[in-house]
Design goal:
Layout lengths: L14 H5 L6 H17 L17 H23 L11 H8 L6 H20 L3 H4 L2 E4 L2 E4 H23 L2
Antiparallel strand pairs: 1-2
Helix pairs in contact: 2-5, 2-7, 3-4, 3-5, 3-7
């Protein structure tokens, strides 16, 4: 059993995301969440996916793309530290990523499929993480983060944005 991250395994900023994940098995949480995202996405049409809940807010497409890109970043960090690399990694600026992706030019169907594929590789990465890898950590964005915390952060970050989609975009 992997177990939940302990205090100090992630920056304080991330504690709220980790709290959104139920149980002690982040791989099971990631697998269950994939089904949840796919079901939610199936109920959103192409035109609706361009919607924003307020001026200046991201579209639904941009939100999903942001979740996908952040998952890639967290996954790379987990790979890097889990394999034993010790070089500090830079931060990930969500605004640069969202602007650079131009997600509103990509169809909703393609963005959903991209998320599904990325989540599949994330699940495989964590499913096959060696026991020693789970205990490793490194510095990313100027703060220590463990591989275990990154697995929970991946699921928690997605859960956070799923909540926003349900409460502000689809309500």
């Amino acid at each position: 059993m992997i177990g939940r991250p302990l205090d100090g395994e992630a920056a304080t900023f991330y504690v709220g995301y980790i709290a959104l994940v139920e149980g002690d098995d982040p791989v099971a949480a990631l697998e269950a969440q994939l089904d949840e995202v796919m079901a939610l996405a199936a109920g959103i049409g192409e035109e609706e996916s361009l919607g924003r809940y307020a001026v200046g807010k991201w579209s639904i497409r941009q939100v999903l793309n942001h979740v996908t890109d952040t998952e890639r970043a967290f996954g790379f960090r987990a790979l890097w530290f889990g394999r034993g690399f010790t070089t500090e990694l830079d931060g990930f600026d969500q605004h640069v990523s969202v602007d650079g992706a131009e997600a509103d030019r990509v169809s909703w169907k393609e963005l959903v499929e991209e998320f599904r594929l990325v989540r599949g590789t994330t699940i495989a990465l964590f499913r096959h993480m060696p026991e020693a890898g789970w205990g490793r950590s490194g510095v990313a964005r100027g703060a220590v983060v463990s591989v275990r915390a990154l697995a929970f952060l991946t699921a928690g970050h997605a859960a956070h944005h799923l909540g926003i989609l349900r409460e502000r975009y689809l309500a």
